[in-house]
Amino acid sequence: MPQICSISVGKVQPITQALQDGSPITYSAIRKLPISSKDNAIEIQIGQLGIKGDEQSNLQVHGGIEKAVYAYAIEHYAFWKDCLVRQNHFDPHHELEHGYFGENLTVSGLLEQEVYIGDKWHVGQTILQVTDFREPCFKLNIKMNFKAAAKIMAQSGFSGWYLRVIKAGAFQAGDEITIEPGSRQISIALQNQTFYHSKGQTDLEF
Q: What is the pTM of this model?
């Protein structure tokens, strides 16, 4: 059964510094930390605009009603750790902390090819609905201190997905996710493939 591994939130903060050439400071809430985990399963409130205490810096691409919550599969963490270790960007003796990719929900038992636009998730008191894949951008590169991160996410298809909140309420880490299938016409994996080819990124290597 799919499950919530952790719930994470973040505040808008600068992720770059001002440069002498006049380059603007980049702000983001991509740096998220768990507030409910299996070891500390605190019930968290979720409203129409997302997890209580969470923020987004650019509401044109993140947040809002249609992208209120971002979910990411814990199954991809091993892949990313291997990439980062091989590129000397991460200590092999450490583990990536949940929320590392800017996700609100780190989940298990669901991958992009199994998640479809329109699927509804019943979790605790809430109902969420899958709305879109996550299109990677340069802020992921900055956060991970790895300039190839966004390209690798595009090529691998390990993007995660957004959800809207159909019914507000509360849930906690460890809660099971019951799926109510939608029309099942467009999967997150299919969205990733379309983005990958339409953006001319088929020559990417990592």
A: 0.93
